[in-house]
């Protein structure tokens, strides 16, 4: 597994919650060996209470719709009966042609215990506060720093004297607090907040952090306890996961999942402003012959070059996605008329008549394009794709190297 020895727990499950794989950190968090849980659903294992199962089902439902979740806090029952607190984020990813769920579980048991102990006694508060590995600040509702630990001072590049009793906003410590008044109301309403922000150090280095904020009574004054954790590495992993979830691994074009998300945004805008847009299904003519002639490696190189040619031929606002094999989807937003889509199709057909050179082989690839128009030919992704597919196959049957618009 890619993240076998990562510090956070990583696991892969199917869309029913059945474990498929997991790393060492995941085993440590729940106290079970991988062999004990693979093939079993986490919804049926004793690691979740009934309350937590209900929450997990809701998150799994979002995953089935192609949506990531989290981070969400769970209290897990370990094999030995102890409770472990974790924050779990999930991402639908495509693995071996199947949609799987990649889960990232970060053990926050120590942080939870630290937060509880902070409020239990002043001595423990001071000890944990000054030795914590996270950045900890206490500030009042005017943003004035009342207390700050050594870790935070070091991370920010300021001395404690420079920060104490000074407004957070004045020193631009956290970009988020430019909007302090609005979030102050939300914090007062909920009592606690978890959000992501950016710490800006003295040398202008930007550090992504996750901030847990809670209203406390500090020296008989209503104040906010803020614990910030550096999530630089987690952000790198999330970026990688996002790329795996939304990009075609060969061409690095958007995949079907990202195309559908973009389609829904364009559709909402089109409905709001009474606009048209086009969906084009594009198939490469005679691609199998190319594979037979120059081999699959050559075919892969050709697909990469095809992707580059699409990008160089289209506007920034247009989206082209590879949906598998030699098929591509193209979305042309905000058209004034169907003629706009015809113009784009004619341009692409002409551009793709120019030969590709792959490993000293001159390859001629043409396009068969089926076009459907929103809202003339339908108002949903499935209907528009089906009609574009039908139009494309008529082109294939009649002549190839051409396009056809779906009839009303």
What does this structure look like?
With 408 residues, this protein is of the alpha+beta class. It folds into 3 domains: 9-107, 2-Layer Sandwich (Beta-Lactamase); 111-231, PAS domain (Beta-Lactamase), CATH 3.30.450; 247-405, Reverse transcriptase/Diguanylate cyclase domain (Alpha-Beta Plaits), CATH 3.30.70. It has 14 helices and 17 strands. Strands 2-1-5-4-3 form a 5-stranded antiparallel beta sheet, with helices on both faces. Strands 7-6-10-9-8 form a 5-stranded antiparallel beta sheet, with helices on both faces. The chain has a 5-stranded mixed beta sheet with strand order 12-13-11-16-17, sandwiched between helices. Helix 4 (109-120) crosses helix 5 (122-131). The protein is elongated and about 85 Å long. The model has no long low-confidence stretch (mean pLDDT 86).
Keyphrases for this structure?
alpha+beta, 408 residues, 5-stranded antiparallel beta sheet, 3 domains
